[in-house]
């Protein structure tokens, strides 16, 4: 199930190494922050200029990380380790930027779902932690056409009009082998800067819609875990009355990034 938010489908392929690897590595040194990035406290004596400089530095580092991910989304030829490093950097810094400016979270939702919905194609994923252990490796560039769409144009769950999510895996460009449809919610926690998408699927379509099957609550999580396309943790969440989720990192006019509940991190390219 391309519930795969962070989950891959074997077989998978790694990208060819970039010929200009030394230049890329130099670029990453400028982009990747330390593993344990900590907030810099602003004392009462700190000036507004110092605070502005810090914010500008974070935004510049975010832009630098995105440049690598833009290239990866277009070419699938960036070194996978470099892509992971850029994703981790973007994840850390985006939360800091959200804490400093909460309006960024709404901008991310708007870019992710847009007016009338936005479609995204999965480009790169490390896979869930469970999948990594089973395969003995990390999945990199995703070999099949796998898409995810979000539409937050309905008025919202409080009015009985849930926001819509669709996941699909295709044979070629047009034939949908499997497609899931359901609803999603979006939450933002200002204190942590975390933006989260929670979701569930209410129906599955097989073989380009030849079969259209309603799903009971929790069935999507079970199907995903059994097929290897979803995290087994989603079953546990469902048992507790909770939904599967993504910790969403970013979305703009070109790419989207997120970490799934299974621990994997992924990159999508906007296709419409």
Automatic annotation (TrEMBL):
Top-level lineage group: Eukaryota
Protein name from the UniProt record: Plastid lipid-associated protein/fibrillin conserved domain-containing protein
Naturally occurring in which organism (per UniProt): Fragilariopsis cylindrus CCMP1102
């Amino acid at each position: 199930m391309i519930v795969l938010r962070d989950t891959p489908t074997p077989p998978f392929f790694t990208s060819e190494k970039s010929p200009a690897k030394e230049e890329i590595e130099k670029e990453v040194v400028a982009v990747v922050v330390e593993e344990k990035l900590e907030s810099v406290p602003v004392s009462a004596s700190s000036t507004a200029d110092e605070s502005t400089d810090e914010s500008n530095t974070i935004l510049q580092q975010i832009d630098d990380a995105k440049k690598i991910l833009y290239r990866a989304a277009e070419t699938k030829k960036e070194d996978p380790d470099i892509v992971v490093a850029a994703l981790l950097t973007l994840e850390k810094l985006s939360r800091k930027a959200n804490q400093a400016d909460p309006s960024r979270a709404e901008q991310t939702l708007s870019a992710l779902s847009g007016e009338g919905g936005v479609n995204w194609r999965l480009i790169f994923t490390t896979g869930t932690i469970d999948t990594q252990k089973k395969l003995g490796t990390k999945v990199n560039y995703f070999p099949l056409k796998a898409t995810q769409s979000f539409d937050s144009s309905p008025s919202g769950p409080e009015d009985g009009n849930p926001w819509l999510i669709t996941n699909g895996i295709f044979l070629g460009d047009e034939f949908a082998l499997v497609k899931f449809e359901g609803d999603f919610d979006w939450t933002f926690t200002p204190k942590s800067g975390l933006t989260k998408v929670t979701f569930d699927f209410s129906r599955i379509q097989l073989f380009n819609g030849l079969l259209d099957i309603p799903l009971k609550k929790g069935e999507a999580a079970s199907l995903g875990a059994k097929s290897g396309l979803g995290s087994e943790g989603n079953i546990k969440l469902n048992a507790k009355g909770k939904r599967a989720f993504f910790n969403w990192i970013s979305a703009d006019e070109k790419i989207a990034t997120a970490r799934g509940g299974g621990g994997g991190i992924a990159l999508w390219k906007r296709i419409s």
